[in-house]
Structure formats: C-alpha cells, structure tokens
Amino acid sequence: MSLVQLKDISKSYKLGEVEIPALSDVTLDIDKGRLVTFIGPSGSGKTTLLNVIGCMDRPDSGSVTIDSRRIDNLDRKGAARFRGENLGFIFQSFNLIPVLSVFENVEYPLMMIQKTPPAERRERVMRLLEAVGMADQAEKRPDRISGGQRQRVAVARALVTNPRLVLADEPTANLDKKTALDVLDLMRAMRDEFGTTFLFSTHDPRIVEHADVIHGIEDGKLVEHSQFLEGMQSHD
Amino acid sequence: MINIFKIAIRNLMRYKRRTMLTSLLIVIGVCMVVLFSGLAGSFKSMMIGIITDSSIGHLQIHKKGYVASIDTLPLNMNLSAEQYKKVAGVLDGKPAIEAYAPRVKFGAMLSNYAESTSVRLSAIDPVREQRVCTALYTRLKNKHDPAEPILKPGEVIIPERIAKAMKIKPGAPVVLVATNKDGSVNGMEYTMTAVIEDILGPGGKDGYMHIDDARKLLRIKGGEVTEIVIRAKPDASFDKVVKGLMAELPGLEIHTWEKLSPFANIAGMIDLMIITVKIIMIAIVLISVLNVMLMSVFERIREIGTIAAMGTLPSRIMGLFVAEGFSLGLLGTVAGLVLGVAGLLLVKALEINFEFGRMKGLVLRPEINVSELLVIGSIVLLAAVLAALQPAYKASRMEPVDALGHV
Fold first, then answer.
1. Residue A162 at interface with chain B, using a CB cutoff of 8 Å
2. Model pTM score
3. What is the pLDDT of residues A68-113, one digit of tens each?
4. Which DSSP string do the residues of B322-346 spell out, in sequence order?
C-alpha cells in the first residue's frame, strides 16, 4: 500500500516578472518501508518535491496524501503539527542545534514537539544513539564531533519520534565517500529495524545504488533515471 | 517551560560578550533607578516626616472655608466647643487615628517693651500637641527633654528670626497684643522661654503659646478651637481616613498635609523625576533587548528553519525567543537590584550630611522598600518581554523553506 501519493503536482516560483516552473504534473506513489531516492541535476526540482512532500511548501495544483491524509491544504500550524507527528528530516548541513548536546539534539523533538515524559525520552534517545553508534558521544556538543558523526546524530534525531516517513535532502553531500556510504547503510539499517520509509535526494551516483527505488527528475518532471546514472557514472 | 528557559539561557551564553554588554546596560539602568528612587524617595519621606511631625501633622480639621482664608487667621471661623466635642468623639472611635490635638491660631503684635512686630501664633495643648507633632521639640534651639511639655501657661516660644532681630533672650518678658473676634484689643505679658527654628514655611514668624493663655488673651469662652491637628497610625491611608471623617463630619473641611504644605509641590516634582528616570530605564531596556533579539533572530535563521521544519509550533518558537529576552532582562534586573541596594546601603553607611532651606545637618539615610524594588524589577522584565515580542514574532512567522535556504 502506498504511503505517499502525489497526484498532478505542479509548483512554480516567481523570479521578478519571470515564472520558473519547479514541478510539472508530478504523479507518484511511494510504498511503505522503502528507501527511495530522487536523482537529477541541480535545479531539477528534487528539493521542491521533498519540500512539498514534507509539508513545508504548498503545490500550486495537485494533491499530496501521506498515510491517507491530504496534507497540501494544511495551514501553518496544522502543517507544523503534521511534520512533528509524522515526519523526520535529515539536512545536508546536519543542522544540529549548536547549544544542545548530542543527547539533547536527539531529545529535542520529543521534548519540544511531542512532549514525551522524561523517562521515556531518555530511553528512546539512548536506544537511537546506540543504534547509530553515538551513545558514547551523548554529552558532546555538535562542534566536538565529526561531520559523519553529526549526520548520524541527525539520523537519530529524525527517527526518534518514530516517524512514518523521513525526508533527506542531499544527506551525503557534505560527507566523504566512506562516511556517505556509512550513513546510507545506517539509513538502511534503520529502515529494516523501524520500518521507516526514507526519501532522499542526491546527485551522488555512489549512493544511488543503495536505494530500493530510484526516480529521475529533470526540469520538474519525473523521467527515466538510467540516463542520469550513466551520465553521473561517466563524470565519476 | 523549564526546557524553553534552559535553551534560552544557553543561547544567551552562546554570545557571551554581547549578552554581558546588554546586561551591563540593563544593570546600569536598574541600578540608577534604585539609587535615585532610594535617595530621592528617602529625601522626600524625610522632609514629609519633618514637616508633619514637627509642624502640621498628617491631617487637619477646620471649619469650612478656613483654609481658603488662612492668610488672615480669622477668629470667626473657629470650631465651637460643641463641634470640637463632636469631632473628638468621632476621632476617639477611629482606630486609624493615633492622636489629635486642638489649636487656636491667631495673629498678634509681639513687643519687648522697646520695639514690636507681628507674629503668627499657634496656641497648643502641649501634651496633646507633642503626641501629634512628635518632633516639634527638635525645632527648639535650646535642648529640650521630649518627655517634658515644651511650654507651660505663661510661656511663649518665639521664632528665631524675631528673637534675633529683637534681641529677645530666653527668660525675657514679652507682651502679646491681639484683637479678638469682636474687634477689641487685649494685651498680656508672658515669658519667652525658647526659640524655635522654622522649617519650610515662609516668613519665619510662627510662635507657640499655651492654648489656655490664648483663650484668655482672645477672651474666648468655652473650648473654641481653630483647628484640630491629627496624627494617623503608620499604616493608615490618609485618603481613606479623610473619606471616613468627611462622611461623619459634614460641614467641616479635612485636609491631608499635602493640601496644607507647599512642600507637596516639591514632593510631586520628586515623584515626577523618579518616573522620568524609570522611563529612561525602560527605554534603555527596550532598545538594548530589542537590538540583541533582532540580531539573534537574524543570526539563527537557519536554526529557526530547522526547528520549524521538525514541527516546532510557531507559538513555541515565539516562546523560545521571548524566554531569551526575559532571561536577559532577569539577569540585568537581579544584578542591577543587588548593586542598587548595595549602593544605597553604602550611602547610608557614609551618613552624608546635607542642607535643605534653613535646615542644616540633615543626614541622608536612603531606604527603598521591597515593593518598590518589585515594581522596578517588574517594569524591567515587562520591558524586556515587550522588546523581545517583535523579533520573536518574526521568528515564529518564518517559513521553514525560506529559513533553511537562508545563507
């Protein structure tokens, strides 16, 4: 059964007087428990697509349904609530909160968004930190750990609320190859352990092959992905 | 809530120098207000205490219209013996009244047998008067035991200026000549026993004599009085007492000291200055906190985008920044209050002398009560929260997509 259903999604941005299409009539179904990647060149619409699915941007037309719920018409507060309860995010630059420790960064969504009781928070955070291999770094601040470790913490933070769907925009872009593959392995492991669906965008051919499903995107339209893979591999 | 404040304080500590500089501004503002309020307020209270305790009491009761014509000291506007009895009965039943005393006030000519001058006299019942004006004896030039009445029948106390001008020394005979309310003139001889210093009143021509002597001199029959001067209990509200008395004593006028002393205008100006200093402090807090919070929001746009993307509600994002402004205000307020109170204690310990008008050797003993400190603290915290509201609102309205894309 599909977790995410996109139907005829279109979205454009205005740059002065010029209207730039970002997505054009995108229709897509994404099944539960899959590791799905969107590949395409810069400016192809990957990020916009993730933003629309992530309830952070509204499409100009079409509908977005996640777990049988329409989310394209939610107001600001409703969208925030939906994101907090159902989605997890992993960012390219990790985006950990610098004043909080590793433990507190992972704890943040449970504490500030879901208001989970402290004992349960601690148990869930430590379970996730152990799962991502960061339990021994729990008290450190983000500036005291490496980029790969930060992204591991970000993965733990994204998963700590048991979201149905985790969205990651270029999660390995700031990582070296080995660390990037480690993070991908971690995402797969988390997918296997928690049954979470991962959607991530990339233009890195090294990690594409680790995805269960690959979607190509160009000029805001879904296209056959093999052409990108060939192009990327030849560049690589 | 605790978690919001924990994050807010950590964010403040993130920019230590900026936080310290802003806090320092708030500390200076709060400290300045505490010092000024303590010094000016204490000066005002001291002056009011001197005026009420040594001259006019807290409240006075007169026949209606007397205060309007007080310059002529009219004798035909005295309260009759029956009226005085009625007033005394009412005052005896008021728990807020500590003491009251009758006075007869009139104008007379004072002669030392060589020259004469006009004088304003307050004829008093010394025992009762000293219960109301507990510091009256402190105005006497010669030392006086406060347990003893300041004068006895046959004695007069004359103002310093007249005593000096007419070279009258204690023990010297003087004659008082006064016109009674029928227009006839009477003169009697008394002994000048003491010289009294005036406080703030103009002219310096106010002397004292015994009320029984005044009644004889003015040929007043019965227990007529010009005014009844009242001392209220320390915690009593003058306005409440006046309201209560007015309801029970129609046809009489009841005034607080503020309506009778020109110092009330100076006290009003002191209050105005304290308010002005508070407004300056509010402006300092508003501008400095607003500036810091605006910078804070601008520097953390991506962070705001991150927490918004994760699902933090706009109200909670707003709460985070308001808590930051509040914490900044609290830090400055606590430090400012502590420093301000320490400054006041230092001034008190130094026992600084000053002069005011003809009063010399006054010792500045500044004090500030806890409620005033709470008011100052509350004003600063309110100003800090108000200043943080706009930046916090701006942060809460940011679209996560725009904020995350901010460079």
1. no
2. 0.75
3. 899 898 998 999 999 999 999 988 888 899 989 999 999 999 988 8
4. HHHHHHHHHHHHHHHHHHHHHHHHH
**Cβ-based interface (< 8 Å): residues of B facing A:** 3-4, 7, 10-11, 13-14, 302-303, 305-314, 316, 399-401, 404
DSSP B79: B
pLDDT tens-digit series, residues B356-390: 665 667 788 888 889 989 999 999 999 999 999 99
| Domain ranges, ordered by start, for chain B | 2-50+265-404, 65-250
Q: Which helix (H) or strand (E) covers residue B124, if one does?
A: strand B116-124
Measured in degrees and rounded to the nearest 5, phi and psi for residue A225 equal -85, -15
Residues B70 and B88: their CA atoms lie apart, in Å, by 22
Give the whole-angstrom CA distance, residue A54 versus residue B392: 24
- Strands A165-169 and A197-202, how do they pair? parallel
User: How many Å apart are CA A165 and CA A186, to the nearest integer?
Assistant: 15
CA distance A54 to B311: 10
Instruction: Give the mutation candidate from A99, A110, A122 for the B interface (greatest B CB count, under 10 A).
Output: A99
Residues of B in contact with A111 (CB under 8 A): 3
Q: CA of A83, closest CA in chain B: separation in Å?
A: 5
Residues of A in contact with B10 (CB under 8 A): 99-100
| Token pair recorded at residue B33 | 């207000």
Chain B residues closer than 8 Å to A105 by CB:
none
CB contact under 8 A, A112 and B308: no
* The pair of three-digit structure tokens given for residue A114, joined into one six-digit string: 């879901």
At A231 the three-state DSSP class reads helix
Tell me the count of A-B CB pairs closer than 8 A. 68
CA atoms within 13 A on the CB side of A220: 15
Q: How far apart are CA B350 and CA B38, in angstroms?
A: 15
Residues in A closer than 8 angstroms to B303, CB to CB, are 95, 97-98
- What ipTM was predicted for this assembly? 0.88
Amino acid identity, position A161: T
**B308: nearest CB among A80, A87, A97:** A80
